[in-house]
């Protein structure tokens, strides 16, 4: 599997990055036995659509998976909808959109469209929650409860390793504070992508986001092999949260940058 950072800015787009959006890819056989690359986006916040065009033809996108329906994680679904409907030579094929809550209603809110608009030509909306499993080609995504202000899921992804034979696992927290269900999600993963919007000593509110130390504790308790920090707000110091995580987590840790590809 391969994870490309389309955007990693937290709560909004930033000076140098779109908001949360990640391209997840793996190679596998289609129903006719031919090898192909399967592609899904995990979250799709402001600025994501334009940046995705640098990495993938939207015609090759197989699915969208939204951890939750806060605007900074889903706003550019409208850009994707417009692209798929109105591309000259289109429209593009319908794809599934997985999310907690009513994804169709949320998309209509974002688009400012009338109630009659269903987007059925572009999207098949499917609601997911803790315990649900989604399969996208050779990848299996399992949803776990997050600790956030709206329904949100962390995602444990298993699929073919890009580094050798066999399968690999990747964990993505979505937006969350530290909680037992996220530790379960991240148990023994080869790569953990953890949100880290808050800074230790600066942000005291709980039940919303991670700090560096809490992201580090999550990775340490779960036994994750690598830790990547993301969803840093434009005013958050990447080095400060990285140092906080390193004080708790014994493995390699870094804050991601847009455009990076991480093989799992």
TrEMBL record:
Cross-referenced InterPro entries: Metallo-B-lactamas, RibonucZ/Hydroxyglut_hydro
One GO molecular-function entry: 3'-tRNA processing endoribonuclease activity
Pfam family, any one: Lactamase_B_2
Keywords recorded for this protein, A-Z: Hydrolase
Domain of life (superkingdom): Bacteria
Limits of the Metallo-beta-lactamase domain: 42-231
Name this polypeptide is given: MBL fold metallo-hydrolase
